[in-house]
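Kindly inspect this one:
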Amino acid sequence: MDWVDRVLGVRRWTRGGERAPHKPLLLLYALGAYQRHGAAPIPFSAAEASLQRLLREFGPPRHTHMGYPFHHLAADDRLWQVDTDDGPGSPGSNPGALRSTRARGRLHPELTAALDADPRLLGRLARALLEANFAPSLHDDVCQEAGLDLAGAELPVAVESRLPPRDPAFRWEVLEAYGFRCAFCDYDGLLDGVAVGLDAAHVRWRSYEGPDEAANGLCLCALHHRLLDRGVLGLTPDREITVSHGFRATAPTASLLVLDLSGRPVRPPRSGRPTVEAGHIAWHTDQVFRRPARAPAA
C-alpha cells in the first residue's frame, strides 16, 4: 500500500453520509507543520487552538473537539504517533489529559522518511486529503488555515479512482438549466458571450456521494457558491434561501448580497428541468449549513 492509499484509508466515524473530517484536518495541519518546521513534534497544548479553529471552520456543524483525532489517528497504519512526559502512547482523547501530560504528536517516522525522500509526496498527500473530504471551493481556505503551500502539487490518480467519474456535462447542464443566472442573486455576467463568475455548485458534495446531476446542482455566482460550501447559505425543503445566524457583516453591500437573501425563493430552473432534490438539501442542512438560520429578511 502506498502513502496516498494510507491517508485515504484512515478509519473515520461514519453514519448515513455524516461528515467526520477530524483526522484529515489533523493530517493536513501536520503536513503544514512538517513543510514549515520539519519533523518537530507538535505539542497538543500549543496546537489545540489552531486545530479547533480548523475544525470549527471546515468541520461539520456539531460540537466536537480535536482531542479525538490527536489520540485515535495513532491507531491507523504508520501515520501518526503520540507520546507524553511519561513515555510513548497517548493518555486518551480527553483534551484535559492531553494537556496535563504534555502530549506531543508527530508524523510517523516512516512517513517523514518518505517525505524527506520524495519532495513531491507532501503535495500529493495534501491534494488527496482535500479532494476526498472537502468541496473544491474550500481547498485554498483549508490550506491557508493549515499553513500549507501546495503550488504546483499534483492530484494523485488514486484519488479519482475512489470517487465517481466526473461528468464533464454537469457544469453546462446546470448553468443552462438556470438560464446562466445565479439562482440566489440573478447575476448573469458574460465576457464575449461566455459566462464568467458562474459555477455549477454541488449541493451534496462529490466527496460525500453527491452525484453530477442537475438535481444536485445550482447555478451560483462565485461568491454564493463559496458561501454555500462554507455553510453561510443554505436551503429549506421549500427551496428558500437560509442565512446562518452566525454570519456577521456591517457593510451595506454585505446586507444586499447576503443578509437580504434570507427567506428569498431560489430561482427555479427552466421548465422541465429538475429542481434540487430534497435529500441533497437535507444533507447540506445537516452536514454543512451553520445553524440556526436567521429570520427571513423583511
